[in-house]
Design goal:
Layout: H1 7-28, H2 39-50, H3 54-63, H4 70-83, H5 87-111, H6 115-127, H7 129-133, H8 141-160, H9 164-180, H10 184-198, H11 206-230, H12 235-241, H13 253-268, H14 275-289, H15 293-309, H16 321-336, H17 347-350, H18 354-373, H19 375-385, H20 391-401, E1 407-409, H21 414-425, H22 452-461, H23 463-467, E2 472-476, H24 480-489, E3 494-502, E4 505-512, H25 522-527
Parallel strand pairs: 1-2
Antiparallel strand pairs: 2-4, 3-4
């Protein structure tokens, strides 16, 4: 069973938690905000602004082949109502949910009986650059982890002392997860298995049957959303984009392991591919304590691996952000309870403060290693920079050289960045010319960070349309891969002039040659081993 920490121990650590939370807030407040939303955020914002109600928003997301999250439409509209059309209206939510995830992770681990471990985990989540970098944008990653942490806390909170109020908190948390996050399909089995483990007679007691039925309701809601929305939407591009992060076929496994190691280092700092070892020790300690916490921390990883093997969900890609949050909580749990493996006779030397005192030494030792290796400083620096998508310079240069009738080939979500800001910001100054670009001249987009063969095939699809144009603009403001590709492939289609020669601010003017042969993508496929 779970031993609640001594109140005096918690009060002793409270100032340290306050300092870590202040550092987390500081690290997530941008020092130099981007002048525009990033490409990945623009199509979300454009969808919200261009659709009147949720069914329209859902239809837009389905047609654009992205998972239509209800949370984006809801929170985006709330932000717009409060702040008006401003990037802060969208980016305030990742900040809020990121801070809530920190509080939720700390509350969960404290409830598991370890205060020093909670402090260590909260510190990693607060300053690890991966935990900062991937929650800055208007995306569901921060919300995913927040719902995970608070669902785990609510499960432990109710299992310790079942009551109507605690049950309402748990049911409400799971219901919110089922409405707002796809990771619900991974955390719900963990919560249910944990509760059945802790309350072994739950399904036998008459007064508890209603509770079990109530817990099943969020599951039914999510299944309906999953089948009606996700399964019919973003399957095509998602499968292609995340193809290397599926466990099947087996040749993907080396790349998955490499991505997992690199991501662990990015999330946790120096020498933290050891996180899987902490997973194992966490399971051992939890099993010895018979508290069932291992079910909460291990089951989501198991279900994510199964979903990856079935090619339903990528493993260790960005959509699996919540798994790294669970990893941080596993590390905290492991080190907070590490002395449980020490013989009981040593407890007499330390008294009631013994475990926490030794745990704090380990925890602060980890924090010190973070500071010495500079991982914390790196995380905070990357979090506050918020690199600009450089959209303004690209659009200004384009407006300066644009002629009526030119066609524009936007890279990835830059199309929606253009559409988003055209009617609001491009009516004055040197950007006014861009407001007159006909929609038919905005050509179809390609995959954002695809490999050269995919980019070649995408460009080949529109090559016939390009031949009839006198001048075609190509923009890259997001990825160097597309920039390098355009440098190599566009000269095969005609005369090319480079207006901006920086990878993340690439701007090419193509004068198509109608006699140019069809693109041959076989050489790119051969180099990629396809």
């Amino acid at each position: 069973m779970i031993d609640k920490p001594d109140r005096a121990v918690f009060l002793l650590y409270l100032p340290f938690f306050a300092i870590v939370f202040a550092v987390a807030l500081y690290a997530r407040l941008p020092a130099d905000p981007a002048p525009y939303l990033w490409a990945d955020e623009s199509w979300r914002a454009y969808a919200i602004l261009s659709t009147g109600d949720f069914p329209d928003f859902l239809r837009f997301m389905r047609e654009d082949r992205h998972f239509p999250l209800f949370s984006e439409w809801l929170f985006g509209n709330i932000g717009l109502a409060i702040f008006g059309f401003d990037e802060f209206a969208f980016r305030i939510w990742p900040l809020i949910f990121s801070l809530l995830s920190i509080v939720g992770a700390g509350a969960f681990l404290i409830r598991c009986g370890t205060v020093s471990g909670a402090l260590a985990a909260v510190f990693f989540i607060s300053v690890g650059w991966g935990f900062i970098f991937y929650v800055r944008e208007f995306k569901p990653y921060a919300l995913d982890f927040a719902l995970t942490a608070w669902s785990f806390f609510a499960a432990v909170y109710w299992a310790d002392k079942p009551s109507a109020g605690r049950l309402a908190l748990l049911a409400g948390t799971l219901l919110a997860a089922s409405l707002f996050s796809i990771v619900f399909v991974f955390i719900y089995p963990a919560v249910l298995a944990y509760l059945l483990y802790r309350q072994r007679g739950l399904y036998r007691q008459r007064e508890e049957r209603f509770a079990l039925a109530l817990l099943l309701v969020p599951g039914c809601v999510f299944v309906a959303i999953y089948l009606l929305v996700y399964a019919g939407a973003a399957t095509g591009p998602t499968r292609e984009f995340w193809a290397d992060y599926y466990l099947w076929p087996p040749e993907n496994i080396p790349s998955i392991l490499e991505a997992g190691v690199q991501s662990s280092m990015g999330y946790f700092g120096f020498a933290w591919p050891a996180v899987p070892i902490c997973y194992v020790y966490c399971a051992i300690i939890s099993w010895r304590r018979k508290d069932g916490v291992w079910l909460l921390l291990m089951t989501p990883l198991l279900f994510a691996a199964i979903a990856s093997a079935l090619q339903l969900y990528p493993l260790f890609g960005r959509p699996s952000f919540f798994l790294f949050g669970i990893g941080a909580m596993s590390v905290g749990y492991c080190f907070g309870h590490v002395l449980e493996l020490v013989p009981v006779k040593f407890e007499g030397w330390w008294g009631r403060w013994g475990r926490e005192a030794a745990g704090s030494v380990l925890g602060f030792g980890l924090i010190l290693s973070y500071l010495v290796t500079g991982a914390a400083a790196e995380g905070i620096e990357k979090g506050r920079k918020w690199p600009s998508p450089h959209t303004e310079k690209v659009f200004s240069t384009l407006a300066e050289h644009y002629r009526p009738g030119d066609a524009v080939k936007f890279n990835a979500g830059v199309k929606y960045t253009f559409l988003l800001y055209r009617d609001r910001l491009f009516q004055d100054g040197n950007l006014s010319e861009l407001a007159d670009i006909p929609a038919r001249k905005v050509l179809a987009r390609e995959i954002m960070e695809a490999d050269a063969p995919s980019l070649c095939r995408s460009l080949r699809l529109i090559a016939d349309d390009i031949r009839d144009e006198k001048r075609v603009w190509f923009l890259t403001t997001y990825t160097w891969k597309a920039y390098k590709f355009y440098q190599r492939i566009l000269p095969l289609l005609g005369d090319v002039e480079t207006l901006l020669g920086e990878p993340r601010r690439g701007l090419f003017l193509l004068k198509p040659n109608q006699a140019a042969p069809a693109l041959d993508c076989s050489r790119f496929e051969a180099k990629e081993g396809k």
